[in-house]
Every structure is written in C-alpha cells, then in structure tokens.
C-alpha cells in the first residue's frame, strides 16, 4: 500500500497566505495547458541544536526563479528579498520541526486557449512540504546513460526551470528507473555529458574535479556553485568547468550528482561499470560531510567567508 504524501497546511497564493485547500487554479490555466510557467526547489533544513529551520541560499533560488520568469516574458512585482520574507512567513505558519522542501511556482494564470507568452497575466504561488531523500541510494547510485537528449537552449532554455521542459526530465527519469537504474545521465545535442535527470554532475579524474560548463545545457545549479566553492576553498582541489565525454564517466575515480533534491549523491556505477572501486570515494565522502554541516547551519559557507 502506498502512503499518501503529507499535504502542506498553507500556501502563498494570489498575494496572500491561505489554507492549502484554497490554493486552486482552473483547468483552463495557461501554464497547466502549455507548460508556460517556471518553478524552483529550495530546501530548509531543521537543526535540532538551535531548534530552527535553515533555508539554504534562498536569494540565489529566487533570483534564478525571477530569471526564468523574465525569459517567459513575466514581470512579477517581487524581489528575491520579498520572496524570502514570504517563505519565512510560510514556514512559520507551517510550523514543522523537520527538513522541508519549498516549491515556488510562477505561472501564466489566464484561463484561455492560445499558445504564446505575450499578453498574459502571471501569478506566483509557493508551498512547503516535509521532505527527505530524493534518491534513496545517496551513498552509491547506479546510473545509466539515457537514450533521450537534454533540451537545448534554442529549444526550451535549459538554464530556466521551465515547467514544460520537465517533461524531458520525466522521460529521462522514468526510462532510467524502468531499466533498473537509480537515475540517468543525459547527453546534450552535441553529444557531451550535460547532467542527471534533475541534478548536476561532477567527476574526479587524476585528483581534479570536473563538471560540465553552463554552456552544456545544464541547469545553473545552486548546489553546483556551492560544491565548486567547497572543493576549491575547503578541500583545496582544482575544479575545471569543461565539456565532459561519456566515456570519461567509465574512467573516473569518483563521480557524483548534486542538487537541492539529490543533495550530494555518490555514483558508484555507470552503465554496469564500477566508478573507481565501486564504493563511495574519499572526495565525495568529505564533500557530503561538509555539505550537510553547511546546509544545517553548522558552519560558515567557506573558510574565506
Ligand atoms: N539540473 C536540473 C535539471 C534540476 O532540475 C536541478 C534541480 N533544481 C538541478 C540541476 C540542480 O539545481 P539546484 O542545485 O539549484 O537545485
């Protein structure tokens, strides 16, 4: 028997915090029909010692959300700071003492037929739910290369978290799961490695950390940015942002996915081949420790502040 997920108690909807049951849209809503919205995914971690939630990099997340909104020709009357204040109010109202996931969503709200981006109104909504792991095997996932390609900047901008674009991610994720993998790696139209189904990728080769650049049709991940800082500033490692070939994954000493949902997930096998020794390696192990201390508010972002 599957257990039903916990529903939020409240949502920010049409400019105010309302009981969750009142946050409803019409089946004719433009974004529901055409995917013309954008969303975010933020985590707030509960810290048992100071008995509070720590929201991880909310300003960066809301800045990216407003960037996606701009690409979709939306102009919302909110700053990242405004949205952070709304989120704090929402989490206070929700009043849960556990790790939370935050879903803000900007959407074209008119109930009408007609594919376009212009001459439409927009709205923003936000809700929060308790959330644990996104990939169960965070200490060693088996991933496979997808037969699908990652959307291209000239198809649907991959650097925006655009609702319609996530049908691509859904095809990728489900193919991987039905084939017995925990997640997928995806090539872009150039044939280079882009990322996971909903996470960025790093590999370690000859002691150097390598990640596909932002021009490889990746989502410009906030966790990726954090990981680059941690590797450079806390672990004194060289980090290269450069194109990655598929077979580099087969030869890497270590590999991992990172993202708000995925957190830092070691990849132990790719396409039935062990990565390194086939168990979580020292770089990913150290990174995971640093990352979880950081997001729970147990240390500053970097040695250099
Ligand atoms: N790529 C994709 C396609 C994603 O959906 C996500 C999750 N937002 C990421 C990468 C990781 O981004 P972030 O670290 O900002 O959550």
What is the CATH homology-level superfamily of the largest domain? D-amino Acid Aminotransferase, subunit A, domain 2
Give the N-terminus to C-terminus distance in angstroms. Answer: 48 Å
Largest sheet: 9 strands, mixed
Q: Supply the number of helical segments.
A: 7
Give the helix/strand class.
alpha+beta
**CATH class division of the largest domain:** Alpha Beta
Order of helices and strands: EEHEEEHHEEEHEEEEHEHEEEH
User: What is the CATH topology classification name of the largest domain?
Assistant: D-amino Acid Aminotransferase, Chain A, domain 2
Low-confidence stretches: 301-305
Percent helix among the residues? 25-40%
Corresponding CATH architecture of the largest domain:
Alpha-Beta Barrel
Question: Explain this structure to me?
Answer:
A hairpin with a 3-residue loop joins strand 14 and strand 15. Helix content is 26%, strand content 28%. The C terminus is likely disordered. The protein is of the alpha+beta class and 305 residues long. The chain has two domains: 121 residues, Aminotransferase class 4, branched-chain amino acid transferase, N-terminal domain (D-amino Acid Aminotransferase, Chain A, domain 1); 155 residues, D-amino Acid Aminotransferase, subunit A, domain 2 (D-amino Acid Aminotransferase, Chain A, domain 2), CATH 3.20.10. The longest helix has 15 residues. 4'-deoxy-4'-aminopyridoxal-5'-phosphate binds next to helix 5.
